[in-house]
């Protein structure tokens, strides 16, 4: 496996898988170009070395159909602006025109390919009527898998080198994220700078943490976080469980949770997690008090109650002051911090205080030298909303891929290059 920083792209064509799945408004203007800017260091390195870059990505879910709404042409001029060079565009990602455009590319030039997902081969899933017979489904799956290999081989053939810089899709075994690597030699495939920094940050947290290591897991439901919690119990010293998950744990001990979000089918599991934490010497922190509301609204009536004595008709929507104090002390004493999921309904101002306190404590610990990683959708939205994003060590750009990594799964896009 080659390392991008040591590789010399002079005279070489590199095909780069990026994640340009950016939000567009109704005029097809980019409303947040974070993902485009995140790919710039990799593309610039290729161009500055004297290589040329063939850029490929998906955009939205066109499901194997050519649909102008999802065309990467919408990205072309913005990419040119961000890179400061002209960007050529070809309206397919395979076929004779693409081969010719790639072959004609000179050092320092950039070619953007059309949306990979205009072809079913990218995802490798057949399109079938719901009531298709099993043998029909099986044959169609086998057929598309074969076509996917041909598609991936053709993408690989456009360039001398394959660079994967799309961490956001690294959990998918798609043609451009994983299968393509089968058609590259060991030294002609590598990660881009974005994936490298995601992996080295995750390495610092999950495999080689300075201690004490504290994870703050929040969000709405235990069910969506259970595998991550179980995986983290082998790694952390402290685990703060907050947000909507709190109430399943409180209820498991017979507490009164009113109409707080609660998953009764997970009560046993909650107790098992607590037992496992004890066995492994992990300190588990749950909110002792909460801010309860009489409606799921910002202007609802509120009161602070013990988390196990929430009156009927009231629901816990944020961590209470006593809990915030404990969470803050634990976080500020930590050398490694992972935050995934808000500890309250931070989207409503009146229930954001707990998450703001968590964010501030992470910033304070980071100031003192801790390594802090924020990742997984809503905690990233929260830290951005609080204006503290540049005061933590690392913010992961990935959603599903990060969650699967935290679950301890092997990501196909990573394995394809690391082997
Ligand atoms: P997740 O995607 O699982 O990280 O969930 C994030 C969502 O959980 C956010 O939209 C929060 O508003 C929500 N959330 C956090 N705490 C609570 C709570 N106590 N009750 C209901 N929803 C919550």
What characteristics describe this protein?
419 residues; alpha/beta; Rossmann fold; 6-stranded parallel β-sheet; 17 strands; elongated; binds adenosine monophosphate
SSE blueprint:
Elements lengths: L12 E5 L16 H16 L2 E5 L16 H11 L3 E4 L5 H8 L6 E4 L6 H4 L10 H24 L3 E4 L24 E3 L1 H15 L5 E5 L8 H7 L5 E4 L4 H7 L3 E2 L9 H13 L3 E4 L2 E5 L8 E5 L2 E2 L4 E5 L1 H12 L3 E5 L12 H15 L3 E4 L3 H8 L8 E2 L4 H7 L5 H7 L1
Parallel strand pairs: 1-2, 1-5, 2-4, 3-4, 5-6, 7-8, 7-15, 8-10, 9-13, 15-16, 16-17
Antiparallel strand pairs: 11-12, 11-14
The structure holds adenosine monophosphate.
Task: Summarize the structure in short.
With 419 residues, the protein is an alpha/beta fold. It has helices at 34-49, 73-83, 96-103, 120-123, 134-157, 193-207, 226-232, 246-252, 267-279, 321-332, 353-367, 378-385, 400-406, 412-418, and strands at 13-17, 52-56, 87-90, 110-113, 161-164, 189-191, 213-217, 238-241, 256-257, 283-286, 289-293, 302-306, 309-310, 315-319, 336-340, 371-374, 394-395. The structure holds adenosine monophosphate (AMP).
If you had to describe this structure to a student in words, what would you say it looks like?
This protein has 419 residues and is an alpha/beta fold. The protein is 37% helix and 16% strand. It has helices at residues 34-49, 73-83, 96-103, 120-123, 134-157, 193-207, 226-232, 246-252, 267-279, 321-332, 353-367, 378-385, 400-406, 412-418, and strands at residues 13-17, 52-56, 87-90, 110-113, 161-164, 189-191, 213-217, 238-241, 256-257, 283-286, 289-293, 302-306, 309-310, 315-319, 336-340, 371-374, 394-395. The strands form four sheets. Strands 3-4-2-1-5-6 form a six-stranded parallel beta sheet, with helices on both faces. Strands 10-8-7-15-16-17 form a six-stranded parallel beta sheet, with helices on both faces. Helix 8 crosses helix 9 and helix 10 (321-332) packs parallel to helix 11. 46% of the residues are buried. The model has no long low-confidence stretch (mean pLDDT 96). The site of adenosine monophosphate has 17 residues, from strand 14. Adenosine monophosphate binds at residues 218-221, 224, 243-244, 261, 316-317, 341-342, 344-345, 347, 377-378.
């Amino acid at each position: 496996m080659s390392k991008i920083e040591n590789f010399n792209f002079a005279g070489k064509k590199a095909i780069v898988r990026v994640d340009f799945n950016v939000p567009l408004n109704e005029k097809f203007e980019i409303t947040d170009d974070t993902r485009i800017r995140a790919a710039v260091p990799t593309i610039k390195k290729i161009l500055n070395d004297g290589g040329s870059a063939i850029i490929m990505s998906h955009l939205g879910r066109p499901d194997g159909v050519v649909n102008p709404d999802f065309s990467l042409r919408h990205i072309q001029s913005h990419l040119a602006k961000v890179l400061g060079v002209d960007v050529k565009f070809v309206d397919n990602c395979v076929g004779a025109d693409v081969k010719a455009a790639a072959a004609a590319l000179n050092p320092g030039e950039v070619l953007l390919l059309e949306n990979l997902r205009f072809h079913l081969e990218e995802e490798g899933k057949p399109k079938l009527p719901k009531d298709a017979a099993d043998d029909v489904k099986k044959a169609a799956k086998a057929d598309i898998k074969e076509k996917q290999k041909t598609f991936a081989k053709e993408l690989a053939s456009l360039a001398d080198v394959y660079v994967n810089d799309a961490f956001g899709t690294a959990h998918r075994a798609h043609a451009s994220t994983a299968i393509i690597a089968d058609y590259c030699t060991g030294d002609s495939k590598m990660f881009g700078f974005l994936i490298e920094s995601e992996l080295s940050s995750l390495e610092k947290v999950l495999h080689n943490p300075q201690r004490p290591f504290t994870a703050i897991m929040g969000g709405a439901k235990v069910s969506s976080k259970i595998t991550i919690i179980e995986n983290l119990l082998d790694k952390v010293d402290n685990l703060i469980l907050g947000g909507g998950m709190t109430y399943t744990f409180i209820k498991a001990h017979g507490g009164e949770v009113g109409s707080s979000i609660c998953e009764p089918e997970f009560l046993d599991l909650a107790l098992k997690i607590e037992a496992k934490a004890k066995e492994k010497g992990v300190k588990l922190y749950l909110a002792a008090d909460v801010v309860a509301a009489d409606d799921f609204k910002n202007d609802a009536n509120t009161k602070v109650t013990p988390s196990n004595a929430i009156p009927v008709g009231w629901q816990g929507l944020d961590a209470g002051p006593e809990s915030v104090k404990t969470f803050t002390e634990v976080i500020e004493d930590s050398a490694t911090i992972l935050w995934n999921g808000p500890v309250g309904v931070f989207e409503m101002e009146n229930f954001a205080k707990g998450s703001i306190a968590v964010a501030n404590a992470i910033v304070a610990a980071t100031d003192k030298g801790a390594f802090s990683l924020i990742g997984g959708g809503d905690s990233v939205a929260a830290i951005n909303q609080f204006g503290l994003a540049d005061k933590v060590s690392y913010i992961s750009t990935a959603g599903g891929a990060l969650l699967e990594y935290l679950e301890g799964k092997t990501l196909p896009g990573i394995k394809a290059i690391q082997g």
